Amino acid sequence: MNKATPESRLRSLLNELSQDNSVGTFAQNLLYTKPIFVHLRPDIENAFLAKRTLEFSQIFRIASALWLLLFAVIFLGTQYFFPYILKDKTYIIWQSAFVTAAFCIVCGSVCAFIPKTHAFVHQYIVAPAITLLLYQLLVGSVAHADNESGLYASYNIIITMIIAVNSLRLLWQKSLLVIVCSGLMAYATIFVNDWHIPMLPALHSFVLIGIVLMSIAFFIERRERLSFLNEILVEVKSHELSRINRHLITIAREDALSGLANRRAFDDTLVIEWDRAKREEQPISLLFMDVDHFKLYNDTYGHSAGDDCLRQVAGAIKKAVLRPADLTARYGGEEFVVLLPCTDGHGAEEVAERILRTVDSMAIPHKRSLVSYHVTVSIGICTTLPTDKNSIALFIENADAALYKAKTSGRHCFKHYMEPSTQSNFNFKH
């Protein structure tokens, strides 16, 4: 037995269908043609059956109480108007029908309060139980075919068929199988015992009502299948729209060349982290870096090689930044930034050293560099404690000034806007 609830199983199946591009086309084609017999793909059919099981589960608890009440009314009515049926042993078939109905209803009432049993009951128990009950009612109506019993039996047969076809959320094929099997079993019993069949009541209460109910069930299920295809189509469109929105958000906040965050994402994150650092009185650091002599690299190797160089440098920077909360972004051209929340000057210096080592370890050839035989970077560091007296613009300007200082000091190094010893004066709150 599947331990998943009907709700979770249906949700899982719908999620799988929404991610299949061919499902939308299949649903649109069927909705356009609207055939009499709506045949679904196996995966969609499984989801439709899960939906019917969920509907059965939702009405099962209430329905079991109503069935119990209905049985009580029929039992008391029989006891009052036809007491001999429950006492006379010649009515053993009717008595067994009462026992079978009581057993099914009591078991159903118990299972109704155990949600994990609903799928099993719906798939394997309901149809056999209804078939057996309907068979006993049909045999009983023929075994005691006097006027009162025949009319009484007709009502019971009709009520049972209505419940089986319209209340139990069975497929119309399974409902038809229940009616046909119970009828054939009853006919076989009647034939073996050579009983007389009252033709008009039998045709009216079983054959005619059965045909009408099956016709209604077929067209109701057809309408529900087409409606379910509309639901699937909405799920597919919603999933596709969500995917497009996520892609647009990624495009809006990711640099296409380097794969790092872009300038917009950096600006938005900096505002958030600045306000948090100001509120919590925590230091914040910014690394502003530049690829040394990148114009000479482009002139020597070409712009395509230059783009590849920037991608490799971006990967090295991202690799050197270890904390998930830190943001690495391409600021523009060959400039990169690393935002380090809750980081003092010494912590920023450690990150800068890792970046220098990681870029150096790649040893990207740069024969026209005036610093080294390979590509290098220069880094400016600014660490501050956000207050009302400073600003984000000044923070970035100071980091840029530190980068300029690193360049004028020979490049391939990092410089602080203020000396590291000054940064140790920040007070941390834990």
Keywords:
15 helices; 5-stranded mixed sheet; disordered C terminus; single chain; elongated; 2 domains; 430 residues; 5 strands; alpha+beta; Alpha-Beta Plaits
Overview of the molecule:
- This protein is α+β, with helices and mostly antiparallel strands and 430 residues long.
- It has two domains: 6-240, no CATH class; 263-423, 2-Layer Sandwich (Alpha-Beta Plaits).
- It is built from 15 helices and five strands.
- The protein has helices spanning 6-18, 21-33, 42-81, 83-87, 92-111, 118-143, 147-167, 172-193, 199-253, 263-280, 294-301, 303-320, 345-362, 392-408, 420-423; strands at 284-291, 327-332, 335-341, 377-384, 414-416.
- Strands 2-3-1-4-5 form a five-stranded mixed sheet, with helices on both faces.
- α14 (392-408) links the parallel β4 (377-384) and β5 (414-416).
- The chain starts with 5 loop residues before the first helix and ends in a 7-residue tail after the last helix.
- Mean pLDDT is 87; it is low at 419-430.
